[in-house]
Amino acid sequence: MANGLLDNMLERVRSGQLDRRDFFKATGGILGASAAAYLLRSVGVDVTGIAEAKAAPVLQVGEKRPEDWERMMWFDCTPFRKDPPWKMANLSQGPTNSWALMLDGHSDYAYQEKYSGMFSDYFYADGQGNAAAQVSGMENLLAQKPDVIISTPLGAALKGPLERAWDMGIPVIQMQMPYLTDKFLSYVNANNAFNGREYAKWLAAKLNGKGKIVMASGMAGVDTAEVRLQAAKDVFAQYPDIEILAHGYHDWSIAKGKAGFEAWLAAFPQIDGIWSDSAFQSWPAVEAFVEAGRAIPPMTTEPLNGFLKLAKKYDVDFYAVGYPNAIGMLMVDMAVRAMRGEIVPRYEYVDQVQFEKNELDKYLRPDASDDLWVDYRYPWVWAEKQFKK
């Protein structure tokens, strides 16, 4: 098991993102119970009561979402090994907003600069934020006979086309999983359930378990939105005194988010809190409350510079959890590993930044574009290239 992955999992235990028993189940069958317990003790975790636990049986890939697997799973990429240069295809969701633009930008940085000269061709399909367009784009990509595919499937309609690519012997790397399948090489993603759950727990604590809230989601049917929403609902179900006044899908659009919050402000004289799955909803929420002359309630968000500027200006109480668009780069990293014939994890968790208003100045870039997601991981020159002052 790669040391980097172990370090990542141990850090997740330390930060509360991974239960100590889950760490033991994930690693105990490979490392052995004593070694797994030793690693937990080495970072100050109490192992009382878990060392006698049995390592979980290996589940067939495709029976559960990767985030819910009970054991780390691996794939030997020896059959894919090929000397460079390689041909890579990117089934993108398309640059429909600033986050998606930076997702593509991280992929561009990886193949143009980080792995300069290692790719002979880069085939790009703009999904236009639409699963149907992605299906058509996938057909065009397959006609180019790529060596490896990175993808951001927006809906279950992509299951067939991406499985067909896998059946053709093409390693498929993806950052969304809107369906269950075992026909992919590696799923590279942050944990959307963590976003949704921690947002809800923070908001419930802020409200002392009682109050009226609204819930704002991104795009209906898309993995990111639906997983976050369900995780939040599971938390709020434990708080009978928290009333959900309304929920809406705003397509991760600031304009649609603004219209949605204006309607809610007109309909509800009391809104005590806002659960938002993205900064694309929390940003217009602040604007709508200011324009309505209403007190801004505590809200959840993401590390988007435009929101952070408003939070600074209006002293907004918030909790931000990142969803790294650096996944665009990390999928290319995984593509390179596949082409080199390495043994790779079938699920690679991407760590997420978390902070509240007391750390605002640490992340805010007052002189940078409002559209900058401040948890970027490519060189700053690439951020300047994508977002002019």
Q: What's the name of the CATH homologous superfamily of the largest domain?
A: Response regulator
Distance between the termini: 44 Å
Rounded to the nearest angstrom, the radius of gyration is: 21 Å
Helix content: 40-55%
CATH class designation of the largest domain: Alpha Beta
Number of strands: 14
Spatial shape: globular
Write the layout of secondary structure elements.
Blueprint: H1 3-15, H2 20-31, H3 33-42, E1 74-76, E2 86-92, H4 98-114, E3 119-126, H5 131-143, E4 148-151, H6 159-167, E5 172-174, E6 186-189, H7 192-206, E7 211-217, H8 223-236, E8 242-249, H9 254-267, E9 273-276, H10 279-292, E10 299-301, H11 305-314, E11 318-321, H12 327-339, E12 343-345, E13 347-349, E14 354-356, H13 360-363, H14 380-386
Parallel strand pairs: 2-3, 2-4, 4-5, 5-6, 6-13, 7-8, 7-9, 10-11
Antiparallel strand pairs: 1-12, 11-14
Please describe what this structure looks like.
- The chain is an alpha/beta fold and 389 residues long.
- The protein has three domains: 3-56; 78-190 and 324-352, 3-Layer(aba) Sandwich (Rossmann fold), CATH 3.40.50; 192-321, Rossmann fold, CATH 3.40.50.2300.
- The protein is 42% helix and 16% strand.
- The chain contains 14 helices and 14 strands.
- The protein has helices spanning 3-15, 20-31, 33-42, 98-114, 131-143, 159-167, 192-206, 223-236, 254-267, 279-292, 305-314, 327-339, 360-363, 380-386, and strands at residues 74-76, 86-92, 119-126, 148-151, 172-174, 186-189, 211-217, 242-249, 273-276, 299-301, 318-321, 343-345, 347-349, 354-356.
- The strands form four sheets. The chain has a six-stranded parallel sheet with strand order 3-2-4-5-6-13, with helices on both faces. A three-stranded parallel sheet has the order 8-7-9, with helices on both faces. The protein has a three-stranded mixed sheet with strand order 10-11-14.
- Strand 4, helix 6 and strand 5 (172-174) form a beta-alpha-beta unit.
- Helix 9 (254-267) crosses helix 10 and helix 10 packs parallel to helix 11 (305-314).
- It is globular and about 60 Å long.
- The chain starts with a helix and ends with a helix.
